[in-house]
Amino acid sequence: MLGAAAEALGNIGDKQAVDELVEALQDGSLGVRRAAAEALGRIGDKQAVDSLIKALQDKRLDVRSNAVEALESIGNERAVDSLIAALQDKRLEVRKKAAEALGRIGNEKAVDALNAALQDEDSEVRSYAVEALGSIGNEKAVDALIAALQDENSEVRSYAAWALGEIGNKKAADALITALQDEDSEVRSNAAEALGSIGNEKAVDALNAALQDENSDVRSNAAWALGEIGNEKAVDILIVALQDEKFFVSNNVAEALGRIGNEKAVDALIAALQNRGSKVRREGVEALRKIGSPACLEKLLQSAQINIYRSDIFSLARSLAIRFSKQRLAFIPVYPELVGKAEISDRDRGEK
User: Fold this and answer.
1) Where are the beta strands (DSSP E) in the chain?
2) What is the pLDDT of residues 114-146, one digit of tens each?
3) Contact status, residue 163 vs residue 134, Cβ threshold 8 Å
4) How far apart are the first and last CA of the chain?
5) E strand or H helix at 292, and its extent?
6) Residue 10 has pLDDT above 70, yes or no
7) Cβ distance 258 to 287 under 8 Å?
8) How far apart, in whole angstroms, are the C-alpha atoms of residue 339 and residue 352?
9) Which of 82, 78, 112 is nearest to 97 (CA)?
10) How do residues 255-269 score in pLDDT, each as one tens digit?
11) In the structure, what pLDDT confidence band is assigned to residue 331 with cuts at 50, 70 and 90?
């Protein structure tokens, strides 16, 4: 079989071609073996797994590399032991693809070998190993990933922070708090997000400080994390952060204030209803809805900053008025000609 023919069979994706392609893995031509391995990956039939495992011993790099990619595409756990062995291949390309494949397959048997791969001499292999450990999500990787936060390569450190967030073990909180001071902004950003995923309140002070970071992604993830943790110690600095120059940061800040639910934020959230960013305004409305106190309604009605008849604000005020109708609060003076196209949402109708 010629290499072009093997490639064509892979493009067609016909599983009837598997036997012929498996046989081609033994061909004397490098081009044929390489194309056959690639084609078997495209077809994705587990019938080819054993033959692709054997191809991991091929003397040529291209064949081994394509065999690893094919096994990743097929995703069969029979390949795990052989892919673990491939983490020791003498060629970088095979080792990093083996790490990636093990992450995709997701078998916890690979955790120890991937932990060891964090000591690989090449930063790309370490990076792929860290990402694989995050995908697998086993807590046996936590100590090795904490150590990887000190890696000399920023991409490895960044993936380590992400992976620790995916695993979610509180043991990593102190190391991630330290990582908020990393010189690389992506590391800091991923560390902030990971702390939100872990949800440890000891991170609140450090995340409050991260709201002042020079990088907007860091500030945005810090705001999100504070909302996930939900500690009221963050309210005052989140109120200040509502004025962030980046709309996507202010958006996460408004959402966080809504999740925390402290009435102290009401005035700032009402002011945010005038923000130039539509998503910020929307999150401001939702945050006020979540706080949902009588004081929230009263301040909405008394505010000179907003137009109570703007459809989203009217909907919010009406839903709160319905909720507190028995408490003798100020009512909304409804002038149909001013309401215009204001619509009442299904959620408001459900509160009647």
Assistant:
1) none
2) 999 999 999 999 999 999 999 999 999 999 999
3) yes
4) 73
5) none
6) no
7) yes
8) 20
9) 82
10) 999 999 999 999 999
11) low
User: Which strand (E) or helix (H) includes residue 14?
Assistant: none
Q: Are 136 and 110 in contact (CB under 8 A)?
A: yes
Amino acid present at 137: G
Q: What is the 3-state secondary structure (H, E, C) of 45-78?
A: CHHHHHHHHHHCCCCCHHHHHHHHHHHHHHCCHH
136: Cα within 13 Å, side-chain hemisphere: 30
Cβ within 8 Å of residue 81, ≥6 positions away: 109
Q: Tally the residues of the chain.
A: 352
What does the block give as tokens for 259? Answer: 């999740």
**Residue 259, SS3?**
helix
Distance (Å, rounded) from C-alpha 234 to C-alpha 121?
A: 42
- Distance from C-alpha of 272 to C-alpha of 228, rounded to nearest angstrom: 21
Total-model pTM: 0.87
AA letter at 332: I
Q: Tokens 């394509």, residue?
A: 66
Residues 35-89: tens digit of each pLDDT? 999 999 999 999 999 999 999 999 999 999 999 999 999 999 999 999 999 999 9
Percent helix, strand and coil across the chain, each rounded to 5? 75, 0, 25
With 50 as the cut, is the pLDDT of residue 270 above it?
A: yes
